[in-house]
Amino acid sequence: MNRKEKTEQKMQELFHSHAAGEEGTDPEFMQILQGYIFGDVCYTGSLDNRTRELVTITTLTVLSTLPQLKAHVQAGLNAGCTPVEIREAVYQCAPFIGFPKTLNAISAMNEAFAEKGVQLPLPKQGTLTSEEERYERGLAIQAPVYGAEIADRYAYLPGDFAQAVPRFLTELCFGDFNTRTGMDGKMRELLTVVLLAAMGGAEAQLKRHVHGALQVGNTREAVVCALVHASGYMGIPRLFNALNACKDLLAEESP
């Protein structure tokens, strides 16, 4: 297939619609957009449509681009994503981008679900049975991959904050979200890499999570593929920043 045929095929698979023609006010722009994302990027690398749509949904949640998010929630369903894993992809952005942006994304997501006839609320995925488990089970996920680095790094903080800041991270990121079912740890780490890249300015955290993504079974090629896939949404500079920050981990000759 040539690039135009690939674009048409991918648009049919994801949106059940034709690729952009000469209709509308900006047909040239839409042809460039769709050609790059759906004709080039979607056919480069190993990730399937389902994973790519979870990457896209994560990126659009971070960027708070709600009309496009709504469209890609529907595309995700068309690609075989379950409503639960789409919801988990959105939910787990909260510790990184904050609760207000995540609430806006949830609203757009639920609108898309409603239009697709998905019954809400979705089944619960929380597994915690007590407040104490937030820290204990969060640490059990965090420590094998990330060790005590955060606690050591912020030991200089005054008063209660030396212990509170690392504890909040463990309880919120790992306890409240990573103990949930509906998405496995391998996918959660891959999507965390993408969301940190899309945020921009979080290269130190990005590198640690690339390390984490590799530790839990993602390949270097899959990590690069996810970042490249996000480039049409987050922009080329953030792609290059992410790749440059993690060069020693992603290089083909790296261990």
Q: Summed up, what is this model?
A:
By secondary structure, this protein is mainly α.
CATH architecture of the largest domain: Up-down Bundle
Structural class: mainly alpha
**Ends: how far apart?**
36 Å
CATH fold type of the largest domain: AhpD-like
How many separate domains?
Answer: 3
Number of helices: 15
Shape: globular
Which H/E pattern describes the elements?
HHHHHHHHHHHHHHH
Which strand-content bin applies to the residues? under 5%
Classified in CATH, the superfamily of the largest domain is AhpD-like
Radius of gyration: 19 Å
Number of DSSP strand runs: 0
Poorly predicted regions: none
Description of the molecule:
The chain has 255 residues and is an all-alpha fold. The protein folds into 3 domains: 1-44, no CATH class; 45-126 and 180-250, AhpD-like; 131-176, no CATH class. It is built from 15 helices and no strands. The protein has helices at residues 3-15, 27-40, 49-63, 66-78, 83-91, 94-97, 99-115, 131-146, 149-153, 161-177, 185-199, 203-215, 220-234, 236-245, 247-250. Helix 3 (49-63) packs antiparallel against helix 4 (66-78) and helix 11 (185-199) packs antiparallel against helix 12 (203-215). The longest helix is centred in the middle third of the chain and has 17 residues, at 99-115. The chain is globular and about 65 Å long. The model has no long low-confidence stretch (mean pLDDT 96).
